[in-house]
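Course exercise 7: structure representation. Students receive a sequence record and must write out the corresponding structure in token form. The form below is the worked example handed out in class, using Glycoside hydrolase (478 residues). Read each field label carefully; the graders check that inputs and outputs are placed in the correct fields and that the protein name is recorded exactly as given.

STUDENT ID: A-19
EXERCISE PROTEIN: Glycoside hydrolase
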Amino acid sequence: MRMQLPLVSLLPFLAASWAKPAPNDATTTSTAVTTSSSSTNVSSSSAVASTSSQTSVTSMPTSDSMSSTMPSCSMPATASGSTTSSTTAPQNTSLPAPVAYGYVASYHIEQADDLKHYPWSNYTHMSFFGTPAIDDETSLGLTSSESLVQELVSLAHQNNVKAMLTIGGYGNASMYFSSLMKADPDRNSYANLVTSYAFQHGFDGIDIDWEYPNYNKTPTYLYAKYDDTSNFLSFLKTLKSKASNLTLSAAAPGEPWLDMNQKPWTNMSEFASVLDYVVIMNYDRFGSWSPTAGPNAPLNDSCVANATQRQGSAVSSLKAWTDAGFPAQKLLLGVPAYGHGFPVAASNATTQAASDNSSSSIALYPAVDVSRMPLHGDKWDSPTLPGGTFSFQGLMDNGYLQLDGTPADGIVRAYDNCTATPYLWNNGTQVVVSYDDAESMKMKGEWVKQNGLAGFAMFEVAGDHENILLGAVKGGLH
Ligand SMILES: *[C@@H]1O[C@H](CO)[C@@H](O)[C@H](O)[C@H]1NC(C)=O
Ligand SMILES: *[C@@H]1O[C@H](CO)[C@@H](O)[C@H](O)[C@H]1NC(C)=O
Ligand SMILES: *[C@@H]1O[C@H](CO)[C@@H](O)[C@H](O)[C@H]1NC(C)=O
Ligand SMILES: *[C@@H]1O[C@H](CO)[C@@H](O)[C@H](O)[C@H]1NC(C)=O
Ligand SMILES: *[C@@H]1O[C@H](CO)[C@@H](O)[C@H](O)[C@H]1NC(C)=O
Ligand SMILES: *[C@@H]1O[C@H](CO)[C@@H](O)[C@H](O)[C@H]1NC(C)=O
Ligand SMILES: *[C@@H]1O[C@H](CO)[C@@H](O)[C@H](O)[C@H]1NC(C)=O
Ligand SMILES: *[C@@H]1O[C@H](CO)[C@@H](O)[C@H](O)[C@H]1NC(C)=O
Ligand SMILES: *[C@@H]1O[C@H](CO)[C@@H](O)[C@H](O)[C@H]1NC(C)=O
Ligand SMILES: *[C@@H]1O[C@H](CO)[C@@H](O)[C@H](O)[C@H]1NC(C)=O
Ligand SMILES: *[C@@H]1O[C@H](CO)[C@@H](O)[C@H](O)[C@H]1NC(C)=O
Ligand SMILES: *[C@@H]1O[C@H](CO)[C@@H](O)[C@H](O)[C@H]1NC(C)=O
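STUDENT ANSWER:
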């Protein structure tokens, strides 16, 4: 059974996973994955990137979600037939280039100069994240400086990248969407505000990260008071009518947004008519709120034997959204440049591989050692409300990984083939980490391609190290 996600456990920077009621317990065996000595050796491609991940947290609790999601952007739909030519008009059958969407967490930027080190040329869209929806239809309430916003838009444009602005985030960062969008004239005023801000600052698109419409368990009291999801759709239509030249995206959980009875909408086609992209926040499926360790960002979960441990996945999300009539080619798979750490007793974390006494294994879904909660993660983890979160870079900084992304000395790595998730066991700190590395990212990229999604969305760009994760997911896509 899924534990309730206390707001306190959430980190400022994550988008979390959807706390949908877990199906009933089924039988499960205590599964284990066998260890492998190293991850796939993916060469770190770009010389640019990395220093961005050395920015340290400044704080600013904004986003986080209990559901997974991130937003996305738009792209031209498909190939168009060639018009002129005489006899055989050759069709342009090549598909649009995949969307490589990156979130830039404003609260991890210490100085505007940091932005110069982001791998701009490797993304198609960069979205500026960290603007809560505030209780005011006359002010957007950005906490970032004007010059930082200008720098971001300018760097994006210099690199032929679409500059997006994300509004919202987990919990309180979204709490006023409900009233802002409930009816005109507020709804119209808010659409005017967002549009004029974007126009004035040269943004190419808007990304709404409402976590979550009608979700009555969000620890704020404003949700599901009105019909949030219907009002959200009306807002997006209004926004589209005012900003038809902008890309519109939304971050979303693994299932379509809820109706007032807490049931996912079954027909998302009208949303598809106004949104260029929906980012499926397929992360935070397990985290500090979970009773056991488990995969942060499972690619699949229908292969998980114990139904209670199925907390959604890329596979289940794609099915849920497309079953509701939202086209795969407007979906972006949200992928995390971070993992979740869990304190686990050594006797619970490791198992002896049945067939090979020489190699130990990491148990899947071991019980969390509650006596060591909360667990402190890396420097971006909240000092006051730690959630055991480590960025990919943070796993390197804290001795879990080497700079090439492979396990550090004394760290055991295992890979769960069902969820396509690597795990680390640190016997020194007695911590299990589920995360993403080059191997799992490549599989996600391949899956995105095989299933005809528009692309992926990385949360967050600065969590990567030397583009190891980015290169892997793109490698899978191409
Ligand atoms: C299934 O998972 C739940 C949650 O971790 C656990 O409580 C339960 O014991 C598991 N069931 C089996 C049969 O292992
Ligand atoms: C990764 O590949 C590079 C180039 O082939 C090689 O120099 C390096 O030793 C490899 N690293 C690991 C950990 O295998
Ligand atoms: C074909 O379509 C792709 C994707 O829309 C585009 O990038 C490419 O430039 C087009 N090629 C031609 C010859 O029009
Ligand atoms: C969120 O807002 C509620 C209601 O205003 C407040 O009680 C709570 O402290 C806020 N939580 C955080 C983490 O700021
Ligand atoms: C969109 O159109 C508005 C109004 O014409 C204009 O001010 C803005 O610069 C345009 N933005 C983009 C990205 O085309
Ligand atoms: C979904 O809604 C659209 C627009 O309202 C409608 O045209 C379509 O028939 C609906 N699809 C289903 C399966 O009900
Ligand atoms: C997910 O798991 C199911 C059940 O084992 C399997 O049929 C399916 O092929 C898997 N899909 C992926 C993408 O791994
Ligand atoms: C593993 O250990 C058991 C008990 O010590 C022993 O019987 C078995 O032969 C060992 N297996 C291997 C593959 O070494
Ligand atoms: C080890 O796992 C068992 C069963 O899952 C659990 O009851 C126990 O509390 C765990 N031990 C520690 C120290 O976490
Ligand atoms: C996991 O999958 C890889 C290929 O992706 C395969 O080489 C390996 O044998 C599999 N491991 C298990 C335990 O099934
Ligand atoms: C794991 O750490 C414990 C101390 O916490 C130590 O006694 C044990 O030898 C270590 N095991 C390995 C395999 O390093
Ligand atoms: C990033 O872009 C640079 C050049 O702009 C290129 O050399 C490198 O291969 C790219 N890396 C990735 C991971 O896309």
